[in-house]
Amino acid sequence: MTKPGTLYLCPTPIGNLEDMTFRSIRMLKEAAVIAAEDTRHTRKLLSYFDIHTPLISYHEHNKAERGPELIARLLAGEDIALVSDAGMPGISDPGSDLVRLAIEADAGVTALPGPNAALAALVCSGLDTTAFTFIGFLPKTKKKRRELIAALAAQPYTLVFYESPHRITSTLAELGAALGDRPAAAGREISKIYEEFVRGTLSSVKTYFEDKQPRGEFTLVVAGTPGEDDITEPAVFESSPAEAVSVLVASGMDKKQAIKKVAQDRNLSKRDVYQSVIGS
């Protein structure tokens, strides 16, 4: 029996072509065929690196038909390189469906290390990298988007999103309304000439891109729900107890816990703080 080939997941640059690895270039040259999300886009990359391997389209709209064709080629012993338009194939693109088909067919699947916007933004955000949750693009329908954001409200881990420039400010507003004004960072044009990271809170990042027209694809990193011990009051202690409670609640803390913390930090009774809140 013919030994099945291997599906190689080959990351491609998210901006700077120098991020292409020697191994990825070699695999793209050695594969029997390259399955690409957008063949026109990938052809420019192949031309730059003088790669002449045949291209075949594999994208969201033809994966039902093209997937079985590619699996048949794997089972015939051919090695196939899978690429997305940018970054690691299988992340926010239909490559993950082809991977599942290859595994079900007992073909080999190997991922090559390479560029990834989510990880690049995470490590440059200044936020906690100990544990994180990759969300990718939020659902397009308002109901599903709000349901997902609501489900993330209690998530203690750093959150990573992808977003387009024409939706970034509205998404920041939605996240702020549902999650509170948490620390956040937005990375755009990562690895390109005009790479930019804007760090602050959801509201301050939103204000920045309201004043400056957002361009390029965005990766948004948002702090997870803080534990009670991680939340501090505003630096300006002249704020009223009620204002301090509001800030803590906006950061994700339960109102009862926020009242307790403000009372302890200011050496006040919980009753006084509570009266301040209901009287404000």
Structural overview:
With 280 residues, the protein is an alpha/beta fold. The protein folds into 3 domains: 6-111, Tetrapyrrole methylase, N-terminal domain (Cobalt-precorrin-4 Transmethylase, domain 1, 3-Layer(aba) Sandwich), CATH 3.40.1010; 117-222, Tetrapyrrole methylase, C-terminal domain (Methyltransferase, Cobalt-precorrin-4 Transmethylase, Domain 2); 228-279, no CATH class. It has helices at residues 22-30, 39-48, 63-75, 95-104, 117-125, 142-152, 168-179, 202-211, 241-250, 255-265, 270-279; strands spanning 6-9, 33-36, 55-57, 80-83, 108-111, 132-137, 158-163, 183-188, 196-201, 218-222. The strands form 2 sheets. The protein has a 5-stranded parallel β-sheet with strand order 3-2-4-1-5, with helices on both faces.
Give me a quick take on this structure.
By secondary structure, the protein is α/β, with parallel strands linked by helices.
Instruction: Give the total of beta strands.
Output: 10
**Major sheet: size, sense and barrel closure?**
5 strands, parallel
Shape: elongated
Distance between the termini: 78 Å
The chain-level mean pLDDT equals: 90
Named CATH architecture of the largest domain? 3-Layer(aba) Sandwich
**Strand-residue proportion:** 15-25%
* Low-pLDDT sequence parts: 231-238
Our count of helices gives 11
CATH topology of the largest domain: Cobalt-precorrin-4 Transmethylase, domain 1
Fourth CATH level, the homologous superfamily of the largest domain = Tetrapyrrole methylase, N-terminal domain
Supply the CATH class of the largest domain. Answer: Alpha Beta
Q: What is the rounded Rg?
A: 24 Å
Structural class: alpha/beta
**Helix amount:** 40-55%
The neighbouring-strand order within the major sheet is 3-2-4-1-5
**N-to-C order of helices and strands:** EHEHEHEHEHEHEHEEHEHHH
The total tally of domains equals 3
